[in-house]
Write a structure and sequence with these properties.
- This is 3-dehydroquinate dehydratase.
- It catalyses: 3-dehydroquinate = 3-dehydroshikimate + H2O.
- Belongs to the type-II 3-dehydroquinase family.
- With 147 residues, the protein is an alpha/beta fold.
- The chain is 37% helix and 21% strand.
- Strands 2-1-3-4-5 form a 5-stranded parallel sheet, with helices on both faces.
- The radius of gyration is 14 Å and the shape is globular.
- Bound molecules: 1,3,4-trihydroxy-5-OXO-cyclohexanecarboxylic acid (DQA).
- The site of 1,3,4-trihydroxy-5-OXO-cyclohexanecarboxylic acid (DQA) has 10 residues, from loops.
């Protein structure tokens, strides 16, 4: 069974009530449930984790190096734009990395236009809301089926 780690960065625990006009009305639990269901239908395994702490996200990436995880789907939230440490951790992970943003960060403030994580990501999805996570998982599954 192929294993995917889904990482959600700071403030994403507030989804549904946090600036819903930007981030939508779905909760993090709604998003994770959809991903769990889609993965299970395809015989894949998902572990989802949200943290407001950079080190917790980094530790989870380190653990993914050792436990057979084949890919990471990550919305680093504000750490996207600040965290060299998260980039370094992802650089030490050998599997696929897909970066997801609910909003189209390129349409927003200039400080959101730069992503450290994009320097490592195999794919980047922005602006599709929660569907971005589903698209990321589908792409991983289809790519694995083809190889
Ligand atoms: C975000 C975009 C980031 O700029 C922001 O800090 C977030 C969420 C998104 O999903 O659109 O917290 O990653």
């Amino acid at each position: 069974m192929k294993k995917v780690l889904v990482l959600h960065g700071p403030n994403l625990n507030l989804l549904g009530t946090r600036e819903p006009e930007i981030y939508g009305y779905e909760t993090l639990e709604d998003i994770n449930t959809t991903l769990y269901e889609k993965a299970a239908l395809n015989g894949w395994d998902i572990k989802a984790l949200q943290s407001n702490h950079e080190g917790v996200l980094i530790d989870a990436i380190h653990a993914a190096r050792e436990d057979g995880t084949v890919a990471i789907i990550i919305n680093p939230a504000a750490y996207t734009h600040t965290s060299v440490a998260l980039l370094d951790a992802l650089n030490a992970f050998a599997g696929k990395v897909i970066e997801v943003h609910l909003s189209n960060v390129h349409k927003r403030e200039a400080f959101r236009h730069h992503s450290y994580v994009s320097l490592r990501a195999d794919g980047v999805i922005a602006g599709l809301g929660s569907q971005g996570y589903v698209a990321a998982l589908e792409a991983l599954i289809r790519t694995a089926e083809r190889s």
